[in-house]
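The data are quoted verbatim for reference:
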Amino acid sequence: MALYLDFFESKGHLCMNSFSLVPHNDKSLLLINAGMAPLKPYFTGQEIPPRRRVTTCQKCIRTGDIENVGKTARHLTFFEMLGNFSFGDYFKREAINWSWEFLTQVIGLDPDRLYPSIYADDDEAFNIWNKEVGVPAEKITRFYRDENGDCDNFWEHGAGPCGPCSEIYYDRGLKYGCGKPDCKVGCDCDRFMEVWNNVFTQFESDGHHNYTELKQKNIDTGMGLERLAVVVQNVDTVFDIDTMKAIRDKICEIAGVEYETDADKDVSIRLITDHIRSVTFMTSDGIIPSNEGRGYVLRRLLRRAARHGRLLGIEGLFLAKLAKTVIDESKDGYPELAEKEEYILKVITTEEEKFNKTIDQGLAILADMEDELVKSGSKTLSGENVFKLYDTYGFPVDLTTEILEEKGFSVDEEGFKKAMEVQKQTARNARTETNYMGADATVYDLINTAITSKFVGYDRLVHDSVISVLTTDTMLVDELVEGTEGTIIVDETPFYAAMGGQTADVGAITTADGASFNVVDTIKLKGGRIGHVGVVRNLPCWRQGYTQG
């Protein structure tokens, strides 16, 4: 991590700390899933970046491939994404040359084992790789769109900024290959591992594959730290790198088992290793287990880890012990883990205790369902009952299936899928349409990006400051008249905006000539702005030169 960040600092990048896993002002994401995700306002121009060149190591959560976690050598729900970003500064030439320089000169990877890829017709990238970097043409792979118009080497997410990619793959050798004669870059086997992805954001998409050139072209680079570690440390899987192995070994110690002696046990060991990392970091960022949203993701990951602990023969509570190992391995890079250790362990222990009770309750209900099957002569548990166990009692579907199969029963998978689809459709219907940032467009998007706010309320409750912005619900205005609801933004404020679980401050904003604005809520807005929401109670509240108290 340090080598990467230091390298890009030497190239004029500002090194920023990892953002929280909880997205800020972005309804399109449940959890931060990429290094660029918290930086989207800088890419879109909605906020001014602290510098046009930025580098980060961002903690991320992805659960799209959760069913593969533990079963493969590379799937994770939690990972760290190294990134270097340019907001209208450098572009393809610098990004490509620096990625090659870092991998071959700083890390010391063999250039002969590195294989770049480009988007189908990105000849600009091809020429940089071939003529400037010196990679032979036959080692550069072009990826094309499929019959649906999709391509892994063209990044786009609905309408908004998008562009071609250039990846770098590392050839790990025949040992990790599939043995097929046509095995090459892009194969699904573990031989060619993608370690770097340069995204060249140069177009604006209308969401229907129609593109216009962007005035401000950006660079978004992503490189999985765990994958890079696999290559650098020359180990078989992400679960063998030093930080992951420490957790893996702790699981084996608690369970009294050996790794790589039983395939089924290995799946459980790897799954727990991954999930406890996710759970620890999510809890550190203030997420608590619940039945919806990101709290549900946390609960699901924790309970999956707890169940696989039972499959390993672990009795009693054990997840907090593993979380302690995660904290010890990661606290140097993320000191907040150590600061919040007591809280993290308490949340995890409480939820594990709840799940143990859930398991016992679920087993009792499932036993009753088994009796009914025997009485009716049926060999299949209905999808409705499977879903009831899952949705109402939190009983994992795969556990239901395993238990029944051991006793000669099966489950109605199609019936369960139908019940799940009904639930998903209900959730879809409840969603609102969003823009590129995933948030409904508001009057606050019209505010000049140069305007910001400073919180000064740590040592005072009253403060004088200049009013910089007045808004109604729909427009920016120069004045608010008596009885009007709106928002006031000032340069400096003692009002605390709601975040981190703390209640927002309320009070009053007054002017020298007696105008009064009753503040009923204080909100955090994009660009570090603080909005005071309320209503005018006396005279018109003019913007120019008025002060706040």
Observations:
- Residues 430-434 have pLDDT under 50 and may be disordered.
- Residues 405 and 468 are 67 Å apart (CA to CA).
- The chain is about 35% helix and 20% strand.
